[in-house]
Amino acid sequence: MSTNQEVLFADECYKLVGAAFEVYNELGSEFLEQVYQEAYEFELNSNSIPFVSQPPLHITYKGHTLNKEYFADLIAYHEILIELKAIEKLTKREESQILNYLRASNLRLGILINFGHDQKLEWKRIIR
Q: Which pTM does this prediction carry?
């Protein structure tokens, strides 16, 4: 096993997480998720980071596209799915949600960001 393995989208993740820290440092942990989404999008725009907000995700079953759609919070750089939360603590439930979104979008990398923890910004890279 190589000790020099590349991290998937390392530079992009650094910028995305940095933008989240900027929002957390400014707003703290007391707001609703929608407030963080708007502030995070502002921060991404300010840093010229390309993203799509609330893209629909279509589920395919046995070659048939189902009517039910999910909506990811953001997709940045056309490659990284971002799911924002404002809850006390991240759990396996949120990890499962982003894994499902990754599967539906055919993307490999997601970043789960939680602004609701009162001690620190929580974030996690999820690879499918």
A: 0.91
